[in-house]
């Protein structure tokens, strides 16, 4: 990726770190409090807040690369120093990247409510994420959700009400905040109702993280490989306890004694896609994570490298 205009300084690739959760004081070079925004869209809300509050560090999560790019350009144009962005599903990454009691406020503006029953696991405030928030938020930390969907505001209220870790404070109808998001302006124009839900953390919870501590790059040397066994791996779903992986494709470069395997692995709810390369060195063969796509080195990723090495060794 080129960075002619210097926006990449805002972009954090947590996969390239090797100690989790991340050390945010080191990343920002200070110990200021942390606000997180999920699904910042074009980033106007985070950019305006960050500009107004240089004493607060902001971290935004987005799944969309376009959104990430637009936000970074806004930060750059406004000479913002106290904001960073991360790509991926915030519900999983917030659990892995933040230590306990580290976030002062979580903001979610106008998320898709995923109205269909079969999509409801895609909604942001599902029970597992509320439990994560009860770990990573500071005691007294605040959740702020803005939505134009009345049943969704009520559902989120009920979910927090059920949780022993939070006190849902209120739903404010047709609130008026000084900064408006792109979706908010759109809904205001259409005259839609808006709801602002606020909750406070009152009790701590400890969740189990998939990545914790130091994470090395998995690799294994083997004497020789059995090519038939390697080819049999394709479309095989290999599972041990809560770790599993599937080899989706195998690319071979026999001239250079090299194979590239496209793998999808899951650790409970954490799914990732990456490549494992297998190639001949002077004497033996090396099975390792390919450096073109660095995944989070979760137990399932390590399991896939070591299990493949075991299964193809001659
Ligand atoms: C409806 S848009 C709202 C954008 C912006 N907040 C606004 O109010 O204009 C929702 C955004 O959330 C992002 N998103 C949805 N689920 C997410 C998740 N689990 N983690 C991070 N971002 C997510 C989407 O990519 C999308 O840009």
UniProtKB/TrEMBL annotation:
Pfam families per record: Methyltransf_4
Query: What Gene Ontology cellular component terms go with this record?
Result: tRNA methyltransferase complex
The residues that hold S-adenosyl-L-methionine are 37, 62, 89
Q: Give the pathway.
A: tRNA modification; N(7)-methylguanine-tRNA biosynthesis
Q: Does the keyword rRNA-binding apply?
A: no
The Gene Ontology terms for molecular function here are: tRNA (guanine(46)-N7)-methyltransferase activity
- Report keywords, A-Z: Methyltransferase, S-adenosyl-L-methionine, Transferase, tRNA processing
Catalytically driven reaction(s): guanosine(46) in tRNA + S-adenosyl-L-methionine = N(7)-methylguanosine(46) in tRNA + S-adenosyl-L-homocysteine
Which residues bind substrate per the record? Answer: 116, 148, 181-184
Q: What does this protein do?
A: Catalyzes the formation of N(7)-methylguanine at position 46 (m7G46) in tRNA.
Q: Which family does it belong to?
A: Belongs to the class I-like SAM-binding methyltransferase superfamily. TrmB family.
Q: What is this protein called?
A: tRNA (guanine-N(7)-)-methyltransferase
């Amino acid at each position: 990726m080129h960075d002619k205009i210097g926006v990449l300084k805002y972009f954090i690739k947590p996969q390239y770190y090797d100690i989790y959760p991340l050390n945010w004081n080191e990343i920002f070079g200070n110990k200021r409090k942390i606000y997180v925004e999920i699904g910042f869209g074009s980033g106007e809300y985070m950019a305006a807040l960050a500009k107004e509050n240089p004493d607060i560090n902001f971290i935004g999560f987005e799944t969309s690369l376009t959104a990430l790019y637009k936000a970074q350009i806004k930060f750059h144009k406004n000479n913002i120093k106290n904001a960073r962005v991360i790509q991926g599903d915030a519900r999983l990454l917030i659990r892995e990247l933040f230590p306990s009691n580290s976030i002062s406020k979580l903001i979610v503006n106008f998320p898709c409510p995923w109205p269909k029953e079969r999509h409801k696991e895609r909604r942001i405030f599902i029970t597992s994420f509320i439990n994560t928030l009860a770990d990573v938020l500071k005691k007294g930390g605040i959740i702020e959700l803005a939505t134009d969907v009345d049943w969704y505001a009520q559902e989120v209220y009920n979910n927090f009400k059920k949780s022993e870790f939070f006190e849902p404070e209120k739903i404010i109808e047709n609130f008026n905040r000084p900064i408006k998001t792109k979706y908010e302006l759109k809904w205001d124009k259409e005259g839609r109702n808006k709801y602002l839900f606020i909750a406070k953390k009152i009790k701590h919870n400890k969740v189990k993280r998939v990545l914790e501590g130091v994470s090395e790059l998995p690799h294994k040397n083997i004497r020789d490989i059995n090519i038939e066994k390697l080819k049999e791996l394709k479309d095989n779903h290999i599972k041990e306890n809560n770790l599993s992986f599937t080899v989706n494709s195998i690319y071979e470069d026999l001239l250079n004694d090299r194979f590239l395997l496209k793998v999808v692995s899951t650790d409970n709810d954490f799914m990732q896609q990456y490549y494992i390369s297998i190639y001949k060195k002077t004497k033996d063969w090396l099975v390792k994570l390919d450096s073109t796509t660095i995944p989070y080195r979760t137990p399932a990723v390590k399991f896939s490298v070591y299990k493949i090495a075991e299964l193809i060794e001659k």
